[in-house]
Specification:
Number of helices: 5
Order of helices and strands: HHHHH
Distance between the termini: 36 Å
Shape: globular
Radius of gyration: 17 Å
Largest sheet: none
Helix content: over 70%
Number of strands: 0
Length: about 120
């Protein structure tokens, strides 16, 4: 039996539950520089939920951050996303490759979101 070589490990951490503590702990491991953004988004979600007497802002917050963490916890997705984002940020918008890069960014986000929403 031979050892299988992986360019990237399949995942850095297990997929967290969509609770605030689990999402925060996961983000602290895979993208700690984004913790302040996470907290600000959480504050906005709670404020909106309170103002509108609705759970939807909190649910959207959970899906958004579960998606962000999904991209970061899977090196293959993270590498695809960063490469596409770098291309989108450096290419001229009139270049057809810019549209390809933007489509790839959206495809990565869609894949991550589908994984965390079971569909």
């Amino acid at each position: 039996m031979t050892a299988q070589h992986h360019e990237h490990p399949p995942e850095l951490i297990p997929r967290p539950e969509k609770t605030f503590p689990a999402l925060r702990a996961a983000l602290a491991r895979v993208a700690p520089s984004r913790l302040a953004e996470f907290q600000a988004d959480r504050d906005l979600a709670f404020t909106s939920a309170t103002q509108h007497n609705a759970f939807r802002p909190i649910h959207l917050f959970q899906i958004k951050w579960a998606t962000e963490i999904e991209i970061e916890r899977l090196p293959r997705l993270s590498a695809r996303y960063r490469a596409a984002l770098d291309a989108a940020n450096t290419l001229d918008r009139s270049d057809p490759k810019w549209r390809e890069a933007m489509d790839e960014c959206l495809a990565v986000r869609d894949e991550a979101r589908a994984a965390v929403t079971d569909g």
